[in-house]
Amino acid sequence: MGKGGDASAATIRGPMKLVGDKSEKYTWSEVKKHITPEDAWVVHQNKVYDVSNWHEHPGGGVIFTHAGDDMTDIFAAFHAQGSQAMMKKFYIGDLIPESVEHKDQRQLDFEKGYRDLRAKLVMMGMFKSSKPFYVYKCSFNMSMWAVAVAMVYFSDSIAMHIGSALLLGLFWQQCGWLAHDFLHHQVFKHRKYGDLAGIFWGDLMQGFSMQWWKNKHNGHHAVPNLHNSSLQSQDGDPDIDTMPLLAWSIKQAQSFREKNADGKDSTFVKYAVKFQAFTYFPILLLARISWLRESFKTAYGLGAASDNAKLELEKRGLQYPLLEKTGIALHYTWMFALSSGFGRWSLPYSLMYFFTATCSSGLFLALVFGLGHNGMAVYDATTRPDFWKLQVTTTRNITGGHGIPQFFVDWFCGGLQYQVDHHLFPMMPRNNLAKCHKLVESFCKEYGVKYHEADMWVGTIEVLRHLQNVSDEFIVDMVKDFPAM
Ligand code: HEM
């Protein structure tokens, strides 16, 4: 029985497709055929589930990133204990383990090893958050906001106002890390508390829609640095979907050719990719503007940031429509009051304040995201490695070094300095990541998995070099394909 074995659901989700009874056995190559949201099979511990068109999934469209694949580890990474009970109604049969030819005994031992490590971390209590830590982080953050507001309210000095705008930029960056932790359910076991805290730090304080963020960020976590396998599938990382501005692989750089009738690169793409190592930082400055725009569109039903998000919004709608709309509206209300110097400033001066805060925040946030993944391995969705290797090899940890002290990195990066460890265990609270890091690092050493870390300077140089390498490859390729150029 397909479509979750649920007749009432079948009437909602379209015609029922018979895929056999529950004693059915499937080969890996059969599973691999079901890779689109309309026809999506997933495997969990050698059991096969048909989740085709299950747009009501509480986690949203991210489920389709694993259509036609094994979801055992990503399921463990994202779900509360007990969510597994819901899987029963989607069960359609068993996988024939011998048909999974791409896994030898060493690979199977490795997978068992990292699943055991996860169980050990659970036993150690590493998924329990420290409430005093989060009370301190939230209070510190609100103090930054209060100081930034007071600097505008009580002072007429330009230097004070610029200082306030930069502080606001930092405040928004830190709001981002707090919303991130709450929405990964690191802090509260009860999902609703995490969501409400996420709406406070995200929508109200930062101007970012919770649902826009969840869709994009959970998708990124599920398939970091991966290209979509086809135009119909939803198995690519939205965070590297930065064309035509930046290309993270030669394949991505060439991907816009198919949009043009003549199959050639547009003049814009040629120049954007050619100079991307130079335009990288100016683009980061504008990142927050783009995120504000996408958030506004999502919260007010004016569009979606990606095909996946569009499908999710069409089929499922917003999880908290009223709270999201109100949160965003209140954000612009307080931001408008502050940016106008509470009615004292001229329009150009207000815009100067707004853009200083907005651009600095974009830079502070995107710098950390960039260091986390850019310049690391990029894969095709069809050839992605196992969960652990995918997460580790696409991700970079950030350390202190070259004059930047560790305590500053810890504060500035908000837990994402342990990006590798966070990607392996997204629900682990920030306060436990340093301890987890040691175990993860030694596990990687034991199995020969490349674990990468760099300080902020070296990491940034790696990112710029990677962009330049893609540009160089792209230019050689353009000349080869179009010698008249
Ligand atoms: C048959 C397969 C699946 C079932 C039955 C299922 C079920 C659920 C349930 C009951 C929840 C809400 C409770 C919780 O957060 O644990 C949930 C949330 C979630 N699921 Fe799934 N899920 C499935 C597959 C997947 C897959 C393959 C992914 C990722 C690739 C995924 C990603 C998520 C995420 C990110 C959330 C949390 C969303 C939030 O914080 O609002 N799920 N899922």
Q: How would you sum up the major sheet?
A: 6 strands, mixed
The residue-averaged pLDDT reads: 90
Task: Detail the poorly predicted runs.
Answer: 1-20
Span between N and C termini?
A: 57 Å
As a percent range, the share of strand residues is 5-15%
Helix content range: 55-70%
Structural class: alpha/beta
Order of helices and strands: HEHEEEEHEHHHHHEHHHHHHHEHEHHHEH
How many domains would you count in the coordinates? 2
- Tell me which ligands are bound: protoporphyrin IX containing FE
Record field, number of beta strands: 10
Task: Assign an overall shape.
Answer: globular
Task: Using the CA coordinates, give the radius of gyration.
Answer: 23 Å
> Helical segment tally?
20
Subcellular location: Membrane
Membrane topology: Multi-pass membrane protein
GO molecular function, one term: oxidoreductase activity
GO biological process, one term: lipid metabolic process
Walk me through what this model shows.
The chain has 485 residues and is an alpha/beta fold. The protein contains 20 helices and ten strands. The longest helix is centred in the C-terminal third of the chain and has 27 residues, at 347-373. The strands form three sheets. Strands 1, 2, 3, 4, 5 and 6 form a six-stranded mixed beta sheet that branches. The protein has a two-stranded parallel ribbon with strand order 7-8. Strands 9-10 form a two-stranded parallel sheet. It has two domains: 3-102, Flavocytochrome B2, Chain A, domain 1 (Roll), CATH 3.10.120.10; 104-485, no CATH class. Helix 6 packs across helix 15. It has helices at 7-13, 28-31, 72-78, 105-123, 131-153, 158-183, 191-206, 210-222, 250-254, 267-274, 276-285, 287-299, 307-316, 321-339, 347-373, 387-393, 406-413, 419-424, 433-447, 456-481, and strands at residues 25-26, 35-36, 39-44, 47-50, 69-70, 91-95, 226-227, 379-380, 396-399, 452-455. Strand 2 (35-36) and strand 3 form a beta hairpin. Bound molecules: protoporphyrin IX containing FE. Residues 23-96 form the Cytochrome b5 heme-binding domain. InterPro entries: Cyt_B5-like_heme/steroid-bd, Cyt_B5-like_heme/steroid_sf, FA_desaturase_dom, Fatty_acid_desaturase. Belongs to the fatty acid desaturase type 1 family. This is Cytochrome b5 heme-binding domain-containing protein. It is a multi-pass membrane protein.
